[in-house]
Amino acid sequence: MNAFLAAFLFFAGALGATLFGFLLRKNLPEHHVSEHSRSIIVLSTKLIATMTALLLGLLVSSANDSLQSFSSGLEQMGARLATTDRLLKDYGPETREVRHSLREHAALTVALIWPEEHERLVGLNLLATGQLPQGGGGTVRCTMPRMQFAPGRSALSFRKSRENCST
């Protein structure tokens, strides 16, 4: 629903309720319109306004916590990817394929989270195919080549078990 339409409907409803209240007041008995009744209505309205403000504050706080958690997770993921890439670079040229796969996987993850960045990633040659997996926003699983330390060697040995990304 359009925001202006929702605001207009709310305004029209509030205006209609106010007019209905003015018409109803003329027909109410006097003890319903006394000062004591008005003070109870004002007190109840203040209580509802306070509870609404509290609820909205909790809602905003929860949304902020979710955003901070997601942002922190992305920062940690980026730091871990950079550290892993640096460690693999230190092992020499035999890790070139794994480093390329790591970068492609990171670019694919960015393209899936932020589709508007897809063209930029293809332009930077970070996505090999330029195609994203098709799917309705399901869980995306990509397996990277598994790395294991070879006990008798100074470098890493790689076992290939790469699968295509699937949704």
Strand-helix topology:
Layout: H1 3-27, H2 35-90, H3 96-113, H4 118-123, E1 146-149, E2 156-159
Antiparallel strand pairs: 1-2
Helix pairs in contact: 2-3
> What fraction, in percent, of the residue positions are helical?
55-70%
Low-confidence stretches: 133-167
Which value, in Å, is the CA radius of gyration?
30 Å
Number of helices: 4
The end-to-end span amounts to: 30 Å
Side-by-side strand order of the widest sheet: 1-2
Secondary-structure element pattern, one letter each: HHHHEE
**Large-scale geometry:** elongated
Largest sheet: 2 strands, antiparallel
Q: What is the overall pLDDT average? A: 77
**Structural class, please?**
mainly alpha
Number of strands: 2
Quaternary structure type: single chain
Strand content: under 5%
Characterise the protein shown here.
- This protein is mostly helical and 167 residues long.
- Among the domains are: 34-74; 91-129.
- It is 63% helix and 5% strand.
- It has helices at 3-27, 35-90, 96-113, 118-123, and strands at residues 146-149, 156-159.
- The radius of gyration is 30 Å and the shape is elongated.
What's the gist of this structure?
The chain has four helices and two strands. With 167 residues, the protein is mainly α.
Question: Which descriptors would you attach to this protein?
Answer:
elongated; two-stranded antiparallel sheet; 2 strands; mainly alpha; 167 residues
